[in-house]
Amino acid sequence: MKTLPELLRERVAATPEGTAYRQFDRAAGRWKSFSWREFAQRVERWKRALHAESLPAGSRIAILARGGIEHICMDQAALALGFVPVPLHAIDNPESIAYILSDSAAALLLVESAQRWGQLSLMRARFPGLKRVLCLEEPEEPAGAVWTEEWLKAADDAGSAEPGPAAVSPDSLAAIVYTSGTTGRPKGVMLTHRNVVSNVLALLEIVEVRTGDVFLSFLPLSHTFERTVGYYLPIAAGSCVAYARSIPELPQDLREVRPTILVSVPRIYERVYMKLQESSIARLGWPLLDYFVARKLRAQFGGRLRFAITGGAPMALAVASRFRSLGIELLQGYGMTEASPVVSSNRPGDNDPATVGRPIPGVEVRIGGNDELLVKGPNVMAGYLNRPEDTQRAIEDGWLHTGDQASIRDGRISIKGRIKDIVVTSTGEKIAPGDVELAIGSDPLFAQACVIGENRPFLAALLVLEPAHWAHEAAALGLNPRDTSSLDAPAARRLVLDRIRKALREFPAYATPRAAWCSVEPWTVENGLMTPTLKIKRIAVEERFAARIRGLYEGRATTSGARWMIARILRPVRTLDAFIKERLGRPYHALLGAVLVAEIVHQVRDLASRPAPDDVRAIVSIVVATLLLINQLAELSERVDRRLAGKPPR
Fold this sequence. Notes:
CATH architecture of the largest domain: 3-Layer(aba) Sandwich
Mean pLDDT: 86
Shape: globular
Oligomer: single chain
């Protein structure tokens, strides 16, 4: 099989009566199942209606709807007719959606509700190429939208002819998936049938997915991770996919559907982990742990979960380790939209949760300049839509620049963090903020965290506290949790910094934030501080809270910067001093002095070249410290000289 329509045709032919999908019917109050044969018949109906639109080959079909039977029927119909699906994030803001509809030149839009279309219709002039708008819910006032049931029925009544096979090749586009855009406009990633199918077949080689397996899908199908692993992979394997009703109803869906495989971003596991951390029972030995916690936890996930696949964001080692200890295997992988998306993954029986596993079959990886992970293989995208220069920068000689710093050891990949996110403090320390934020987030008090410190003397943290936990802690401190000013109380600041230090106890001192500002108002897609895939927009966060950030550093930057610089000077001096005294003796004390002076000159010049005016006083502090160090060195040299000469110390 080389294309996605072939993938579906082969599955329907192989197991026509097998259960393909389950979806909750709210009107009937029960789960409804669809066999592969029934699903194929539904797709044919959508194909006839879509074919009747007489759109040219390669037309873009935008889908702004939750995951479910209707979404995948449109997706499969579009693919079979040689059209290109453009999945949109259901929670994205109207401005971003309007931009994507324009950039992709979408000809047809399938939208969840009339209300959603009402927001977009106000910007109709921005995407003039849109010829048809379909609404899954019957609109009270059409306003240019057609109810999908009427659209499908019209094609049935017209007796539309069965559309013939379209010219779909492995190099035809299978989707244009827009990246989240943490730093600017989202980019349309062009993925071919070859890209996606190669990724699916490679996954089948490393993970045993059976026809009897059941997936529970709750991630949006606009997420490439869910599209490939939670949608196309089950088609190839003949597994059943049940579509969750909603995130609030997910716990109930897990118990009712009882999935054997779960595909999720780490957040769901992190939330469970936080609940476990609050329980003293979780620290018991295995027999009691299994009795009190593990069995109940496995039951909450349905009781028959074989393994869970996680990706889309980094996962803390402590979270994966705790789940493994409770009998739930978490397989962490790594990928990106531009790689269709899976690059590497851990496997059952070969699972190192401290890494993102080994490259999947057919994919090559290597480390390039600045420790950047480079990827090559049939899964690498065709390019960015309408952005040839960005495409050239992203792919060189077939190697995809991931933008992630990584290391490879014994064939396993470890991700250090995004290169563009690496924080370089004014003292020269380099820190991956994602690792720090992940560790901070393991404390249930902290719902969200953004670490800052670029060109500043130390790290600071902007935090969103979990309201219920803050209410409990505030009461213990004698503070009113409903009064936002209580977050600035000295006792609250001490509590937060103590919890940060505890969460980061295994990190070096320079990677531990020494100041923090807290809020209980969450960062969301709606307020512009999160992407639709729930990644923090760092630039937006720093701009929104610029005044708060200045307050964290005012009055502290100078002394802290000087202290860090002095520490940097002392480290090599002390090491060399010990070596010289023990191994080389008196003649080389002059060398020690020369090294000391050279190091001081280098540090002062480096600091003076930085633009921050607050560092001027830090330079003065270092000069004063230098004089003291030189005086101490002179005294040390004299003592050593007198001892070597057999004279008593003065």
